Amino acid sequence: MQLLDGKKISDDIKNEIAEEVSKIKAKGQKVPHLAAVILGNDGASLTYVGSKVKACERVGFESTLVKMSATTSEVELLAKIKELNENDDIDGFIIQLPLPPQINEQKVLMAVDPSKDVDGFHPENFGRMALDMSTFIPATPFGILELLERYNVQTQGKHTVVIGRSHIVGRPMSILMGRKGFPGNSTVTLTHSHTKNISQITTQADIIITALGVPNYLKAEMVKDDVVVIDVGITRVADDSHPKGYVIQGDVDFENVSKKASFITPVPGGVGPMTIAMLLKNTLLARERRAK
Ligand code: GUN
């Protein structure tokens, strides 16, 4: 079994990006600038956004954190998005999800200028992704592709089973694994809450990508020998013995599934850090495109 070490690979990617930033600076050009908008005080969301801002500092990007109250109206948020779209200093920005209930997520995602949509959630970018056109690929799926590529995990002709059809992970992942090229050329099954006899499907899988948010969901008896397992789950589970009062758990029963797997991502330290590295990569790409 080989661990797919997202922490190490994301550090490599961040170092590569920092080198690009040094070159940009040496030429006296503007460094990439990422903005993140967050509504409310959800602990997990604040932690994720904080990590994104910290990662910007580490690679030499500029960053702006826009904190708005949980009671922000849709009109106010749309006005903020318009401001970010028009601010020439901002190369890319993200609206941290989930949003409070008074806000229509689709309306918000549609309002982001596609050339600054480093999350890749705007329908224009999502459509371009499905059509194999150059675009921003959502950071988590992009990070998974990068992990598979850097560990040279074979995907061609393999049966990939994606568990969960979220717009952020499962749906784009199912498209990307079936695209032409590497990592791709895979035969994909997208499973979700209405899928019957899921074990019958997962035991046929060469590659399993779980993005469910149910701790310990994928058990050893649900996988075959030598399976490749990508665990996107990051659920906070209360644990008084831990200083923070919780531990992060993935969707996979790692202890037992890892005994059968050929490659597997740990949680934490697998997909999570890759997401942040790929958001930085998309922001660098946004800057390069805008500089042309
Ligand atoms: N919430 C959970 N994952 C993500 C992500 O990748 N981007 C944004 N904007 N919000 C998220």
Describe the protein in words.
This protein has 292 residues and is α/β, with parallel strands linked by helices. The chain folds into 2 domains: 87 residues, Leucine Dehydrogenase, chain A, domain 1 (Rossmann fold, 3-Layer(aba) Sandwich); 134 residues, NAD(P)-binding Rossmann-like Domain (Rossmann fold), CATH 3.40.50. Helix content is 40%, strand content 16%. The strands form 3 sheets. The protein has a 6-stranded parallel sheet with strand order 1-11-8-7-5-6. A 3-stranded parallel sheet has the order 3-2-4, covered by helices on one side. Strands 9-10 form a two-stranded antiparallel sheet. Helix 7 links the parallel strand 5 and strand 6. The longest helix is centred in the N-terminal third of the chain and has 21 residues. Bound molecules: guanine. Guanine binds next to strand 4 and helix 6.
Which assembly state applies to the chains in this document?
single chain
- If strands are numbered along the chain, what order do they take across the biggest sheet? 1-11-8-7-5-6
The count of domains is 2
How much β-strand is present in the residues?
15-25%
